[in-house]
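stage 2 :: seqdesign
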């Protein structure tokens, strides 16, 4: 709180403009979600640009030393101004775990895991939710809503509860019970949509429009992608001087991978790291629209043709943020690849047993991606890799037990 006060004292505005990702035209900042009004394109999302000269004068290594270890320490690179409330909600500054035995399993010399499952609601989505909830409070909106395969929902419900803001959550039929339990316990109004994630998303968008609620759907809310960016800012600060060659991230809607790549690039521009790690986006083989778009420039699949994956959090056949996800990964000279469900389950077991990190399937996909990338010679055996573990495995015990098997029964 006290350190938050230090930041507030020096607060200035650093955003220069909101720009359309397609036509690059300048756009008015939306209340929450919004696409470019000049483009007739649902995927023309908005991107936040900053006055980097001004940021460089304020976001310095010395300044950072005095700031709390949470994501608001990078307030110059966030699109809204934190207040004292924001500093009382913990978020970010998750640990980086050295994973030597997992590196040997993946066939590389060094592997580190950024364990974002240790955020307060057990996924990296807390980075976006804290921004969304604070923004909704500042805009004096009476309710915040989102549609989610699970983690964004439980995260939003948690931060709305911390802030005392009512929330409504739309989840698809397939959302795992522990994630639904989490949001019910946080006191959210829950609507389980008898249909897919895409249908839950459309219903949420319509409800927000009709009732004037704050729309926390990350892909078309430019503020929230900036929240996810703090994972990339942290990776740069935490690894500075020994930054990895590759940062590996699993991909659903594409917001996370785009945010992390943008964060790494901004920290390079500010001189915190000497080079930008390449970013590798990992998709499930059964739901790979962004990997395809990276290769062809177009979204190939309709929901009917996607084959699904056990990694529910990245089961996103129509990703709303694919253009940013392709653009930013290209800008790091990175790549995309696909992993099968068998590779994901093998990686989930290996990550637990060899690194002591319990990853949910979507998070383990990133670790599976490291091994696949080495096999495919995308990543060299002597390269240094950091994989982001985006969510904790306790969130989906049914899948974990199906993978791990049962304990041996013994007599007392
Ligand atoms: C655990 C986990 N990993 C990865 C992702 C993918 O993030 P994005 O949809 O921003 O690409 C999600 C999204 O829900 C997630 O919950
Ligand atoms: Zn446009």
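stage 2 :: out
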């Amino acid at each position: 709180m006290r350190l938050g006060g230090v930041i507030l004292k020096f607060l200035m505005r650093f955003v220069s403009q909101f720009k359309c990702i397609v036509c690059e035209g300048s756009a008015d900042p939306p209340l929450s979600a919004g696409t470019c009004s000049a483009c007739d394109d649902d995927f023309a999302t908005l991107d936040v640009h900053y006055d980097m000269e001004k940021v460089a004068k304020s976001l310095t290594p010395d300044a950072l030393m005095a700031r709390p270890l949470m994501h608001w320490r990078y307030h110059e690179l966030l699109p809204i101004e934190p207040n004292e409330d924001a500093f009382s909600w913990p978020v970010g500054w998750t640990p980086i775990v050295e994973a030597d035995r997992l590196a040997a399993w993946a066939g590389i010399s060094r592997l580190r895991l950024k364990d974002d499952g240790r955020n307060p609601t057990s996924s990296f989505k807390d980075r976006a939710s804290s921004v969304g909830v604070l923004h909704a409070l500042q805009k004096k909106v009476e309710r915040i809503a989102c549609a989610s395969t699970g983690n964004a929902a439980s995260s939003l419900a948690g931060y709305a509860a911390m802030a005392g803001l009512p929330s409504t959550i739309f989840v698809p039929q397939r959302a795992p019970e522990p994630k639904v339990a989490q949001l019910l316990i946080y006191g959210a109004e829950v609507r389980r949509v008898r249909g897919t994630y895409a249908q839950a998303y459309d219903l949420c968008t319509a409800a927000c429009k009709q009732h004037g609620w704050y729309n926390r759907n990350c892909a078309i809310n430019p503020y929230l992608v900036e929240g996810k960016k703090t994972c990339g800012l942290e990776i740069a600060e935490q690894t500075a001087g020994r930054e990895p060659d590759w940062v590996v991230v699993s991909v659903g809607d594409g917001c996370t991978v785009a945010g992390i790549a943008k964060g790494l690039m901004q920290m390079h521009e500010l001189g915190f790291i000497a080079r930008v790690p390449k970013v590798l986006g990992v998709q499930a083989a059964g739901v790979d629209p962004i990997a395809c778009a990276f290769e062809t420039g177009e979204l190939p699949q309709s929901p009917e043709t996607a084959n699904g994956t056990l990694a529910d959090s990245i089961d996103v056949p129509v990703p709303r943020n694919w253009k940013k996800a392709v653009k930013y990964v290209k800008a790091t000279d990175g790549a995309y690849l696909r992993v099968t469900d068998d590779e994901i389950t093998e990686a989930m077991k290996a990550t637990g047993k060899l690194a002591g990190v319990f990853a949910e399937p979507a998070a383990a996909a990133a670790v599976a991606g490291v091994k696949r990338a080495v096999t495919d010679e995308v990543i060299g055996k002597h390269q240094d890799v950091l994989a982001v573990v985006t969510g904790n495995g306790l969130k989906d015990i049914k899948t974990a037990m199906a993978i791990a098997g049962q304990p041996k029964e013994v007599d007392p």
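stage 3 :: structure notes
- The radius of gyration is 20 Å.
- Residues 123, 149, 151-152, 250-257, 313-314, 316, 360, 362-363, 390-391 surround pyridoxal-5'-phosphate (ligand 1) (CB under 6 Å).
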